[in-house]
């Protein structure tokens, strides 16, 4: 009986450790150190966010994979700021993310879930989320121009009349 309880306790505690070392991004679990989620490939996105992300990476590396340290506000806030910078830069450049973890809310949700699993949920002082930049003017409609719109209306009207004629002869 005691060996069963020991095995059950070991499995429960091992699950907590694995929960913090694995973060799921886009359905794929990453087992690399969480600090590696701050690395973006060389390019304009990385260049724009060097200051925020280097500070966050330094703090994460200093924690030595300690969940209590990594989930604390002074460490978690720069991590969120780094991904906010990535996200804002991607929108500003109107570019796709060079890797799935760059500027992705799934990374922040995964880190938040890992902190909750380690019984260190993010405090109310740190917003684990991404906000749209103030300069974003939203998605734009595609303007085809008046001649193309008139041609489209003529084609659609012809198709509608044809459909009515076909249904009328049935």
UniProtKB/TrEMBL annotation:
Q: Where is the signal peptide?
A: 1-19
Q: Which domain of life is it from?
A: Eukaryota
Q: Which UniProt keywords apply?
A: Membrane, Signal, Transmembrane, Transmembrane helix
Q: Which residues cross the membrane?
A: 144-167
This protein is called Extracellular membrane protein CFEM domain-containing protein
State the species of origin. Answer: Pterulicium gracile
